[in-house]
Amino acid sequence: MPKLRVAIGSDEAGYALKEQVKSHLEDSGVEVVDYGCNSPDPVDYPDVALTVAQDIAAHKAERGILICGTGIGMAIAANKVPGVSAAQAHDPYSAARARKSNNAQVLTLGARVIAPELAKTIVDVWMASEFEGGNSARKVDKIAAFDAQRDRTADDADAPLERR
Question: Which residue of 16, 18, 61, 77 has the fewest C-beta atoms within 10 A of its own C-beta?
Answer without folding.
Answer: 16
